[in-house]
Amino acid sequence: MTLRRVAILGSTGSIGVNTLDVIRVHPERFKVLALTAGKQIDRLAEQCVEFKPVIAVVADADGASRLSKILQEKKLSTQVLYGPEALITAVTQSDCDTVMAAIVGAAGLVPALAAAKAGKRVLLANKEALVMSGNLFMQAMQLGGGELLPIDSEHNAIFQCLPQQFTKAPYDYLGVEELWLTASGGPFRNTPISELSSITPDQACAHPNWVMGRKISVDSATMMNKGLEVIEAFWLFGLPLEKIKVLIHPQSVVHSMVRYRDGSVIAQMGQPDMRTPIAYGLAWPERINAGVEPLNLAQLAALSFSEPDLIRFPCLALAFGAAKIGGTAPAVLNAANEIAVAAFLDAGLPYLRIPEVVEKTLNQIASVPASSLELILAVDSQARQVASNIIRKINR
Fold first, then answer.
1. What is the pLDDT of residues 81-91, one digit of tens each?
2. What is the pTM of this model?
3. What structural domains does the chain harbor?
């Protein structure tokens, strides 16, 4: 049994906390070498006291000072760093071999790319790395020679349903015909569209099945999350976009499916608990106890599936459109959505205006080939400014 040395980017978020839950059960298998967080200094300090990483990273100097003081009082030798460059340091200088990339949003792109280039086993829970820079990221993984394991429940499910000898190209010799990403439909799948105009942030964040952060909960409600996952699946698995489908599955028991040419459909099922895909990624190709309750099929009343309504979920349609355009369009989509969701959560933008902001931003910024990280980050910055200007006009 190999001891895996783990760095967790975003350790105080839901994915990070669940990752530490799995590691806690298997101290003989995993050693935590780096933990990073943004502003949750007290929670990060607790994690450092328990797991004693070599490096801890926070967002700014004030946070670093606070964390350093706490850890010194606990007589810990953990090196405390801060800022975006320190995230790369956590990946490249902590002697880790496995990186959980779980920083939400565009902020997670650069350290995830650094992990790819460094040849680490990358457990990818950050959609934006592939949405914004899919081609660059996959090239970095190939050049680095590491392993890429998807942690999003849907992509992890597809990974489990594909043949073990699956490679991106040519996928067709294995008879893979379609990928089916399942979606719960969020809290408003049955809410009359006329009532959506008054939706509050707390309502949007009350996901019926999953416990997630506020931003990703809103993305689930609008189904932008699923749109980003379609783009992610395109890069991960190499199938044409038209072979990647979305199905509404309210019970969140079937996490995704693969349809084969001979008529077979293979599905991965389980509790809606992120510890399952996290444990799969940490220990792959072995399977370990994730601390998840067994799925009792006899207690399930029914499993239902339906096609998504793109009038109810315009963000999903926008994501498919950006994916078809390609180039920097997905980066613009992602940036505009992040700004719009943040404005909604601050109670300044009505829920139904989120897709409007994204669509207007896409219309104002022409797509160009996503040829370099510098270009992608510049487009990301431009899209955020454009989206912010659109929101200001809406809120006047």
1. 999 999 999 99
2. 0.92
3. 4-150 (3.40.50.720), 158-299 (no CATH), 326-394 (1.10.1740.10)
